[in-house]
From TrEMBL:
It comes from the Eukaryota. GO terms for cellular component: mitochondrion. Residues 62-105 form the Rhodanese domain. Belongs to the GcvT family. This is Dimethylglycine dehydrogenase. InterPro entries: FAD-dep_OxRdtase, FAD/NAD-bd_sf, FAO_M, GcvT/YgfZ/DmdA, GcvT/YgfZ_C, GcvT_C, GCVT_N, Rhodanese-like_dom. SUPFAM superfamilies: Aminomethyltransferase beta-barrel domain, FAD-linked reductases, C-terminal domain, FAD/NAD(P)-binding domain, Folate-binding domain.
């Protein structure tokens, strides 16, 4: 979507930008309430200036709620795509809320081109940006990683020395710096002018814009948008777009069912100084993230603000109305932590008068990334909100992406990182949002550590085994609200992550878990899997059409496959078990519960007799993996079996082949055992009624003492699956990756008849592919301790040329090397294995190249002998 947004991401592998260029709207609108008025010559005689309102239309193809820069960008891009029957409604004035006081922006590659093309109207100025790294942090490693990726995408980026920083920014203190990232093509633009430029462009292309119109209700019919009610009448429409800014969450409540938009407002501060010596219009934007601050030129002075570690949430009870062009009270005490850092970096500010402080509310999401897309509950209801202080930067790309989604009926690119369906309903809880906002605003400038876990809003969803894992010294992480054991600390070791770009403190402990799985038997709690029951007379017909694998299988057969979009890309990656003639059990990754249920429900045809039920909370999942797993589980079967290979063992290979599922009596519990693996070893996933999970867990550990049974966490799972070359949705598998490109053609049945995505796969097979997933084993550096520490997103270099990026990486404890996966691209095609294997490969880690050996087979157990044991 947004090339530079992808590149310089605050979370590295996610599609959300760090912030770069500070931008203030206008000196007249800083620090005080401002009212904009429009004039009409016909009213001059009465002594007042008013604007005659046009009546609302009775119908429109699209109604957009919200006249900020995002709403206007969506309107502009829809009109550019030919959808001109669009009505934009703004309850106040265009650009009257967060747009006008926006103080920071980082322009994406697409956005910068759009804004530059509208230079006369937007105030776009290419001045470059500098991000400094202090000596006492690992920030330099972070910006080196960003610079390497930017350069790989053809974006000018350079790591410069403190002395070079001084030349670009003479008034800056540099004695405590280790270096900086210089982006000469970055720029700034005026926020209100950007908003007005989009508004003007939209109107020129036929969009109607109405100010002073409040949306009061969103109507639905048959699960889709049918119209809106406003204070000036009703409008029938096919599509509704919620771009309501701070009010988006409340607007979500105006429909039935209500739409969950997890946003909370927080105060955002910056100051504007009077003229400062050395400041000029082309002074680069400067960020000092270790000091939480940013700076940019404004009318001969500086705008200086930041993202303090602990913010001030506001409007917890309700957002006041009206709230147009208004600011919140100054709070110099709260601003003190930023002011201290501002004076540290630019000491001369201390002797210059501050014109004013700006304190404006902005909305933040539960994960610091904005909300985009069609809602999971109502068809044709779209949202673009929660921009986390990056609305100006992201407006062009977000407007383009959402408008294409609206027109095409599905995303035209991978938008999972910002997809509204990534949130669970509980994350719209106000208490949760307030607590989480205290943390997320401060993360804007925090180092995006690998494996970083959010600390607020925790312990919301817990497996029934949680207390048992906690008692065994588990270090928990959070996924989709679920508390999950990442690794287990031995006695005397604190189960807390110590973050670094190097090997982290859990490295050897996760390694012990991984090797125990390879050599003995390990137990994993994977209760957080999303689980669905697809049932009805047309269940097989439905899944045959929506899944790429063949669903016409016997009861008890497990099918690993994907559900694809019309482009052949993965919408989800699933295992599907036929449990009855009219019933299937679908299991997908944790974070996709809302997305996958939405995708399947919206795929049901009107004449299909099928229902889909989310049964995630009904079952705990105890996973038993390793060469001793058959022996262990055979001991627990009823009646018990002393020989795991005998005919009496349910788990004997001939009685329980790979890729099958059975109801089995274990101890005093009847469970569903499924023989699959995500770690590359013999093993079973046990689906257990939640209330029976603890007793079975205890029995498994007791029965396996002499088999060296041990607990394992998700860090071990990740290492094991990467070592084995198993793909993960959201990393190797996305909506822009096909099974052919991912090397998963075996999971597609092209002969079963038509299915979603088949036409695209047929065309791709005929034309060939230009990218292919490859595994690499990476050598350490020559110096002692110079480990090839990879976390994903590093550039793949072939014969000196960047040919792709790493999607997943981990240390492979069984093979004794760092193992990673990534797509190798070649415009002339990559079907020939000789091309893939023929080059000299290196991986760029923070600007340093490490030698890598490619393989098209798994690095571990390439013949699957252990899985099929």
């Amino acid at each position: 979507m947004l090339r530079q947004t992808r590149l310089l991401s605050a979370t590295s592998s996610r599609m959300i930008s760090t912030r770069a260029a500070a931008v203030a709207s206008s000196s007249s609108s800083l620090g005080k309430v401002v009212r904009f008025e429009t004039a009409n010559a016909e009213s001059a005689a009465s002594g007042t200036l008013t604007k005659v309102k046009k009546p609302l239309p009775s119908s429109a193809r699209v109604v957009i709620c919200g006249g900020g820069i995002i709403g206007n960008s969506v309107a502009y891009h829809l009109a550019k795509l030919g959808w001109k029957d669009v009505v934009l409604l703004e309850q106040g004035k265009i650009g009257c809320l967060t747009t006008w006081h926006a103080a920071e922006t980082k322009l994406s590659d697409y956005g910068s081109k759009v804004y530059a093309s509208l230079e006369a109207e937007t105030g776009w100025r290419q001045c470059g940006s500098i991000t400094v790294a202090r000596k006492d942090s690992e920030r330099l490693t972070h910006i080196k990683r960003n610079a390497a990726k930017a350069a790989a995408f053809g974006i000018k980026a350079e790591i410069i020395s403190p002395s070079e920083v001084s030349k670009l920014y003479p008034m800056m203190r540099t004695d405590d710096l280790a270096g900086a990232l210089w982006l000469p093509e970055d720029g700034v633009a005026t926020s209100t002018d950007l908003c007005n430029a989009f508004s003007k462009g939209a109107k020129m292309n036929g969009v109607q814009i109405h100010e002073g119109v409040e949306v009061q209700k969103v109507f639905t019919k048959n699960g889709a948008v049918s119209g809106v009610r406003t204070n000036e009448g009703d409008i029938a429409c096919d599509v509704f777009v919620n771009c309501g800014g701070l009010w988006s969450r409340e607007i979500g409540k105006l429909s039935e069912p209500q739409v969950n938009i997890p946003l909370h407002a927080a105060e955002h501060f910056y100051i504007v100084t009077k003229n400062l010596q050395g400041v000029h219009p082309n002074l680069p934007v400067m960020r000092d993230p270790d000091g939480y601050t940013y700076f940019r030129e404004w009318s001969g002075g500086l705008v200086a603000g930041g993202f303090e570690p602990k913010c001030k949430p506001c409007f917890h009870d309700a957002i006041p109305k009206p709230f147009e062009f208004e600011l919140l009270p100054d709070d110099w005490d709260h601003f003190g932590v930023l002011m201290e850092q501002i004076l540290h970096r630019i000491p001369s500010i201390e002797s210059v008068e501050v014109r004013n402080m700006v304190n404006g509310p902005e909305s933040f999401t539960a994960d610091n990334q904005y909300v985009l897309g069609e809602t999971p509950l109502i068809r044709k209801y779209f949202v673009a909100a929660g921009m986390n202080s990056s609305g100006i930067a992201s407006s062009a790309g977000a407007g383009k992406a959402l408008s294409e989604w609206i027109v095409a009926g599905q995303p035209t690119m991978d938008l999972w990182a910002i997809d509204i369906r990534r949130f669970a309903p509980f994350q719209n809880n106000k208490a949760f949002l307030r607590e989480r906002t205290l943390e997320t605003l401060g993360l804007h400038y925090a180092i995006p550590w690998p494996k970083r876990e959010l600390e607020s809003g925790r312990n919301v969803r817990r497996s029934p085994l949680h207390d048992r894992l906690q008692a065994r010294n588990a270090s928990f992480g959070s996924k989709f609200g679920w508390e999950r054991a990442n690794w287990f600390a031995p006695k005397g070791v604190e189960p807390v992550n110590v973050y670094s770009f190097k090997r982290q403190n859990w490295f050897e402990h996760a390694g012990r878990e991984a090797l125990n799985t390879r050599n003995n038997v390990s137990v994993f709690d994977q209760t957080s899997f999303a689980k669905f029951q697809v049932q009805g007379a047309d269940a097989e017909r439905f899944l045959q059409r929506t899944a790429a694998g063949n669903m016409a299988v016997p009861i008890g057969k497990v099918v690993y496959t994907g559900m694809l979009n019309n482009r052949g890309g993965y919408e989800t990656d699933v295992t599907i078990t036929r449990t009855a003639a009219d019933t299937y059990f679908v299991v997908s990754p944790t974070a996709q519960a809302v997305r996958d249920l939405d995708w399947m429900n919206k795929s049901i045809l009107p004449d299909e007799r099928v229902s889909i039920t989310d049964v995630t909370s009904a079952y705990a999942v105890i996973v038993v993996m390793g060469p001793n797993s058959r022996t262990l589980l055979s001991r627990l079967q009823s009646p018990k079996c002393d020989s795991p290979t005998s005919e009496n063992s349910v788990f004997a290979s001939k009685n329980f082949p790979f890729g099958t599922s059975q109801l089995v009596d274990l101890g005093f519990t009847t469970i569903r055992a499924t023989r699959v693996t995500y770690v590359g070893e013999l093993g079973w996933e046990l689906y257990v009624p939640q209330e029976m999970a603890c007793s079975l867990f205890d029995e498994i550990l007791a029965a396996g003492k002499d088999l060296s049974v041990a607990l394992g966490g998700y860090y071990a799972i990740d290492s094991l699956r990467i070592e084995k070359g198993y793909r993960a949705w959201g990393a190797e598998l996305t909506s822009e990756v096909t099974p052919i490109e991912a090397g998963l053609s075996f999971a597609v049945d092209m002969n079963k008849g038509d299915f979603v995505g088949r036409e695209a796969l047929v065309a791709q097979k005929k034309s060939g592919v230009s990218k292919r997933l490859v595994s690499f084993m990476v050598d350490d550096g020559a110096e002692p301790g110079d480990h090839a520490c990879m976390w994903g997103d590093e550039a793949i270099v072939r014969d000196g040329k960047v040919v792709g990026f790493i999607t997943s990486a981990s240390y492979g404890y069984a093979v004794g090397k760092t193992v990673c996966m990534g797509f190798v691209k070649n415009d002339s095609g990559v079907a020939d294995p000789a091309f893939v294997m023929g080059g000299k490969y290196q991986i760029d880690i923070a600007g340093k190249l490490y030698n890598a050996t490619p393989t098209l087979k798994p690095a571990y157990d390439p013949t699957n002998a252990r899985v099929n044991a």
